[in-house]
Amino acid sequence: MKITPDTKGVAAAVLSSALGGTAVVATRAAVGPLGGGALDPLSLAFARYMIGALALMCFLGWVGLARPQRRDLLPIVLLGVLFFALFPLLFNLSLAYTSAPRGSLALSTLPLLTLALAATLGIEPMTLRKLAGVLLAMAGVGSALVGDLAAGPEGAWRGDLVMVATAAVGAIFNVFSRPYLARYRAIAFVAYAMLAGSLFLGLALPLSGLLGVVTASPGALDPGDWALVAYLGLFGAALTFFLWGYGLEHTTPTKVAVTVAVNPMTSMLLAALFLNEQVTAGLLTGLAAVALGIFITMRPSGERTRRPKAGGRDLPP
């Protein structure tokens, strides 16, 4: 059986989202009671993406892949700051006002926003099949979280709106990164974008006191904390977002974005396995709905997708 580039792209995105789910659990462990409070979200995000960027840059130097041309550096830097700095900052801000389940459901609007933006720009047609698949995946997330959605702090709607804005940032990255993924390999694009985002986060660290955040001291970290940081950098950043970029390189933005629904499912399954949380019927129903939604979205429907240009020519659909 021949494996198409489209299938490779979706498979990479699914694996990326699953790894992202493990990163959520690791982050909770690092900044929560298990981590002893030695790590804060801002310094952890900086360490995560800086380690990931340096790992990817080292790999680039080893294999000798082409670096972005000077004319492309500014847009790649801007996309990196958008996705690897603004995205996590908005994500953390959202969870300061709303609950994790409500935040997960709000973030599941990412594929819908991606599809709307891609269709508006004429990059990807909005078909009934894709729309149905995206909505089914979103419903799957809602089904898995239904028992927790009502439980939210007062004024949780503010956090929900911030999380939708976070999803919009992700949609912009998904759509506008495609021309650069047509010119460069995914690992090169992600390495430079992630480095830009992590440097921006580093600039924000001195201002953390003004933001009411106390950054971590390296001396306060024990071996378990360092292990979590290393995992988040190498697997939760470098590998996760290389796979996400690989998916965007090989298939459409919506087919990649819809796999974000796998992220909360993975988190809940890991919590059930390692934290003795209950596996509910809603979780199992949600898993089935997410899988079916991804399958429906990636099924060919006969339309031709406009691929980004590379070297002055259109890539084949």
Short description:
With 317 residues, the protein is mostly helical. It has 13 helices and 2 strands; from the N terminus they run αααααααααααααββ.
3D architecture notes:
By secondary structure, the protein is mainly α. The protein has one domain. The chain has 13 helices and two strands. The chain has a two-stranded antiparallel ribbon. A hairpin with a 2-residue loop joins β1 (309-310) and β2. α4 (100-107) packs antiparallel against α6 and α4 packs parallel to α7. The radius of gyration is 19 Å and the shape is globular. Mean pLDDT is 80; it is low at 209-215, 303-307 and 310-317.
Q: What tags apply to this protein structure?
A:
317 residues, mainly alpha, disordered C terminus
Nearest-angstrom radius of gyration? 19 Å
Strand coverage percent: under 5%
The total beta strand count reads 2
End-to-end separation: 20 Å
Task: Compute the number of structural domains.
Answer: 1
Number of helical segments with 4 or more residues: 13
Low-confidence stretches: 209-215, 303-307, 310-317
Order of helices and strands: HHHHHHHHHHHHHEE
Proportion of helical residues: over 70%
By helix and strand content, what is the structural category? mainly alpha
What is the spatial order of strands in the main beta sheet? 1-2
The overall average pLDDT, rounded, is 80
By oligomeric state, this entry counts as single chain
Domain EamA: 8-141, 158-298
Membrane topology: Multi-pass membrane protein
Transmembrane segments: 45-66, 73-93, 105-124, 131-151, 157-177, 189-214, 226-244, 256-275, 281-298
Main location: membrane
